[in-house]
Specification:
Largest sheet: 6 strands, mixed
Order of helices and strands: EHEHEEEHHEHHEHHE
Structural class: alpha/beta
Number of helices: 8
Radius of gyration: 21 Å
Length: 213
């Protein structure tokens, strides 16, 4: 079997990017991660724009952890409408974050951070609970046949406790499996990850409907 190795390089120049070894190494490291984020197998020179982006990312990472504790994360629900009848038949739960100072933060900015740091697993549990609680409310008060789709990442699927948590919240809010759909991306199948596939089989055994995004 052939093995191919590629490299992502970050470059910091003396004296423009720093005048001591520690600063130069730190900024070369920042540039390296920029090279990785832009497709890997390339090199990047450190510059002030990269530094600003890195600083913003660190700030969002810190505040995302706080926002999770302060209940700044919430769900919007996007309706799925049956064309023949015009009726809402299901909804997709979409995660949103209202920062206490910056206002609404785009999912494009905070979801990758949650994925990279592993926070997506803890956030995912919160999403499951919020969606199940809301589903119970709607079923009890106005839409008895409604179902909600929850997005689940590959990282969440690798977590062995995911199925247990879903079962727990279904029982807590008196929901049957047909109340919840699990939405996944096609990258889960491309990776052929054994843990992900095991979890998908377990979700299927619960009679949960799996949707491909």
């Amino acid at each position: 079997m052939d093995t191919y190795i590629t490299a992502s390089l970050g470059i910091a120049l003396y004296p423009d990017n720093g005048k001591d070894i520690s600063t130069l190494l730190k900024r070369a490291d920042i540039a390296m991660y920029q090279a990785k984020d832009n497709g890997k197998n390339q090199f990047y020179y450190y510059n002030n724009e990269i530094n600003k982006a890195s600083g913003k990312r660190l700030l969002l990472e810190r505040d995302l952890r706080k926002g999770l504790d302060k209940d700044e994360l919430f769900l919007n629900y996007q309706p799925v409408v049956e064309l023949q009848t015009g009726k809402i038949v299901s909804l997709e739960a979409l995660l949103r974050w209202e920062h206490n100072e910056m206002g609404m933060v785009s999912p494009v900015d905070f979801i990758p951070i949650a994925e990279d740091t592993g926070l997506i697993v803890e956030i995912g549990y919160k999403v499951i609970e919020m969606a199940c609680k809301q589903c119970h409310y709607w079923k009890t008060n106005s839409f008895p046949h409604i179902r909600i789709a929850i997005n689940v990442s590959a990282r969440q699927l690798r977590d062995e406790k995911l199925v247990t948590y879903i079962e727990y919240y279904l029982n807590k809010y008196s929901l049957t499996p047909d109340a919840i759909d699990i939405e996944i991306t096609e990258s889960v199948f491309y990776s052929n990850d054994a843990k992900c596939l095991k979890t998908l089989h377990q979700l299927n055994e619960l009679n949960l409907r799996l949707l491909l995004d």
